[in-house]
Amino acid sequence: MLKHVSAPAHSFTQVPNEIIRHPRLSAEAVRLLLWQLALPPGVDVSLSETAKRAGIKKTAFTRAKGELLAEGYVHEWKRQGIAGRWATQQLISNTPLTAEEAAAAAGRPPAAPKPAVGEPTPRDVGRPQENTEGNTSPPPHHPLAERGAQALALVTRGERRLRLSSRDVRALAPLVAEWLQRGASLREIRDELTSGLPDQVRSARGLLRNRLLRKMPDPAPEPTPPPSPLRACAGGCGRMIRPAAGESQCRDCRYELATAVPHDDASGAAAATRRGMAAVREALSPFAPAL
């Protein structure tokens, strides 16, 4: 393999090899990210407009954007302006960023009080941009539905029989989000949605909707309340007990207390009571766990 490389004197962009060799980014996602990073400083072009210039079709753009969002190269936030119109702010970076790092780079307040990240340089981290095209009154941003859309794009990537339009993705995203909320992993979702596909799929949306509903995992079980803490028996025997109904003494101490002979008891009633309770206790001991 021969290679001849001439260093460009102008009009070039430094790109980390991690982007070019990324194992989970499709060719369209890499192309979309490189186009954005190659824009001159101060030029703000939305991702959808960049996809048009790069020749990326609408469905491929939806998947590519989902991949970049999932890998941390793209972050976006929706905000409402003075006139009530919604706008989307997008941040593109040449390295994966966490949500906190992206918010800091975009100059947004952090979602929760956490240690501040280092001050990024505008070119190395990325640049925020406003995407106001077609802004009338879209619904507010729903993170869970977005996660569902991203997951759907990832699990169906590379399967030609499951090509979806952006409208299809929006329609199915809530179902995928429900799978995620019930604890399903991306691998489990991919296996359930892509295994055993027919040779020809007439309606990818209909097939996926059917599988998402029919194979929906059961809701996660309610967390078991923690057991009551151990405490010393108040009867003075030195045992540790785990109260089940607020009792303060172990079973033996409660029994001794119940069968104690009063000082003024001259009859044999107390003794008879003790013998009867001892017999009952002996009969029930195999079935009643000791505290």
What does this entry look like structurally?
This protein is mainly alpha-helical and 291 residues long. It has 12 helices and 5 strands. The chain has helices at 17-20, 27-37, 47-53, 58-71, 99-105, 122-125, 143-156, 166-181, 186-194, 204-214, 251-258, 269-284, and strands spanning 74-80, 86-92, 127-131, 231-232, 240-241. The strands form 2 sheets. The protein has a 3-stranded antiparallel beta sheet with strand order 1-2-3. A two-stranded antiparallel sheet has the order 4-5. Strand 4 (231-232) and strand 5 form a beta hairpin. The relative contact order is 0.08.
How much of the sequence is in beta strands? 5-15%
Alpha plus pi helix count: 12
Strand order of the largest sheet: 1-2-3
Q: What series of H and E elements makes up the topology?
A: HHHHEEHHEHHHHEEHH
Sheet with the most strands?
A: 3 strands, antiparallel
Tell me the helix content: 40-55%
Radius of gyration: 33 Å
The count of β-strands is 5
Question: What structural class do the secondary elements suggest?
Answer: mainly alpha
Poorly predicted tracts of residues: 112-125, 132-141
* Backbone shape: elongated
Q: How many angstroms does the end-to-end distance come to?
A: 77 Å
